[in-house]
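Protocol step 6 of 9: fold each sequence in the batch and record its C-alpha cells directly after the sequence line. For illustration, a two-sequence batch is reproduced in full.

Sequence one:
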Amino acid sequence: MTVRPLGWALLLFLAIAAGTFLLPSHRWDVAVTVWLQHAPQVLDLPAAGLVFLADAEISIPLIVLVGLLLARRDRRRVEGVAWLAAGMLAASAVAFFLKWVLPHPGPPLEFQRMPHRVGLYVPQPFSFPSGHTMRTTFFAVMVLRRTPPAAGALVITVMAALVYLGDHWTSDVLGGLCLGWACAEIARGLRPPA
C-alpha cells in the first residue's frame, strides 16, 4: 500500500497539530523564534513586505488582476488563474476556521518585531495553522511546480519571515506548509483536465 502525497501532507499536519500540545514543542517554537530574531533589524522591512504580499487581501486580488491582464492575450489561461484564486481563497477559509478550533496561541507581543501591520486584520483567537504559509504553499505547488528550487525558496522565505517578525511560531508555519500542500493536492485532483 502506498501513501499518496495528500496522505503524507495530512499525516504530517496531524502530527504537527498534536505536537503543538506538548511542552517541548513550545520550547522549540520559542528557541527558533529567538534564534531568527538575532538577525539584523535591516530585515524587518523586507520581511514585512513579503508577509504583506502573502496577506489574503493582497495576494488573491493580485492573482485575479493578473488573470484579467492575461485574459486580454490568452483566454485559456483565465480558467487556471481563476482556479488558483479560488484555491487560495479556500485555503484561507480553512486556516481561518482552524484558528477558531485548535487552541494554539501565537507569539506574545514581546516577540513581535513590527506590531503595527498594514492591511486588513481580522482578530482570531489562535494562530495555528499559518494562513500565509498555506496560501504561499498552495501558490508554489500550483504555479511553480516545474521549478522546485524557486517554489521551495519562496515558501521557506515566507515561513522564516513570519517567525522572524513574531507573527507565528515555527509549528504554525509547518502546519500551514502541510495543509497548503494538502489543499494543492486536492485542487490538482479536482481540477478538470485542460
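Sequence two, same batch, same settings:
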Amino acid sequence: MSKRLTPKGYRLLKAEYENLLHVERPKVVRGITNAAAEGDRSENAEYIYGKKHLREIDKRLQYLAQLLKEVQVICLEHRLQSTVSFGHTVVVKDDQDEFRSFRIVGEGETEFHDRAISERSPVAKALLGKRIGDIVEIVRPKGVWEVEICELLNSVDRDQ
C-alpha cells in the first residue's frame, strides 16, 4: 500500500533523508573513527556518544526510506472542495463554541505543518469525507468530542 504525502512533505522528508545519508552520517562515522584511534573505547565518551548517535541516524534513515518507498505525492489542486480530504485545513467548532483548525497530512510529515494531524489519526479519520455543516463525533481516548465542520481551507499556495 502506498503512502500519501503532500508535495511539501515529500520535499522536506526527501531532503532530510539525503542530508542524513550524505552529510550527517559520514560526519559521525569520521568522528567515531577518530575517537576509536585514540585507544580505549570503553571509557571514550566521544566514541560511545558517536556510536549512539550513529544508531539514531540509521534508525531515522530506515524510517524515512520506508516512508518514502512507494510514496504517492498528492496534487492538492485537484481535490474536491466540498468534502474534507487529504491536504485540507478543516476549521471546526466544538460544543463550547471554540474554533480549532486541523491540517490533514501524510504520516511522518506532521512536524512540517502547523496544526497538522496524520490522516491516520482518529480526528482525521472522523473528519475525512464530511462536509461543511456536518456534526461529527470524534472518539478519543478521553471521550467523545462532538464538532461541527465550519470551513475548509485550501492552502495549496503554501505547499507548492
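Proceed to step 7 once all outputs are recorded. Observation for sequence two: The mean pLDDT is 88.
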